[in-house]
Amino acid sequence: MDAAVIVPAYNEAESLARCLAPFESQPVELVVVVGGDDGTEQVARETPFVDTVVRSDEGGAGAARNRGAAAATAPILLFTDADTVVPDDWVRLHLRHYADDDVVGVGGPARPLEDSLKHRVLFKLLSDYWYRVSWPLGFVQQPGFNCSFRAGAFEAAGGFDEDIPFMEDTELSLRMKDYGRIVYDADSCVSTSARREADEGYLSLFAKYVRGYANHYILRREFDAEYF
């Protein structure tokens, strides 16, 4: 297989089957990293086209993604989340960029699963247009629910930093720039839950990202557990 898809799923029994369904028709090595106690592991193990189920209860999403990557054997690693639904050609859209040997990573935008004008507008601004503006300036931020890497470069970079609780996907994206080119593919749009934005608020989340960039690019601080 050319690609492995890694899905971290912590207490996602209700959403996991919907997330996995598009991969039944896409030729991938499917790895699900499960945690929690709500039956998520049972859903993963009962899905016939899941190749590998890995248990990871500690360390958060970054640690779960690293466990999944370690279990995968394919040369290209794609990552999405259990509360996300990818299009039927998502794997193909990512893989086409790796025909260029200089490409080490691909990222793409998202739209909300929830049918709300507020969510649709803000997702378009913050999960698409913001990327289109910031990536050419060097502010690369492959979202954890829609990203991929060459396995060799991912391993050389050390994978996701398991010590930071937030923005670990962006932190890895910034490190991956040292290994090659990272492509933004506006066509590979996924649908993901807006529950985090609804719970914390768009302004609060955006302020965290602004502080993160200011710390890294202006104050030149290294990412660590106290970064935010």
UniProtKB/TrEMBL annotation:
GO terms for cellular component: plasma membrane. It is found in: Cell membrane. InterPro entries: Glyco_trans_2-like (IPR001173), Nucleotide-diphossugar_trans (IPR029044). Keywords: Cell membrane, Glycosyltransferase, Membrane, Transferase. Residues 5-129 form the Glycosyltransferase 2-like domain. GO terms for molecular function: glycosyltransferase activity. SUPFAM superfamilies: Nucleotide-diphospho-sugar transferases. This is Glycosyltransferase 2-like domain-containing protein. It comes from Haloarcula mannanilytica. The lineage of its organism: Archaea, Methanobacteriati, Methanobacteriota, Stenosarchaea group, Halobacteria.
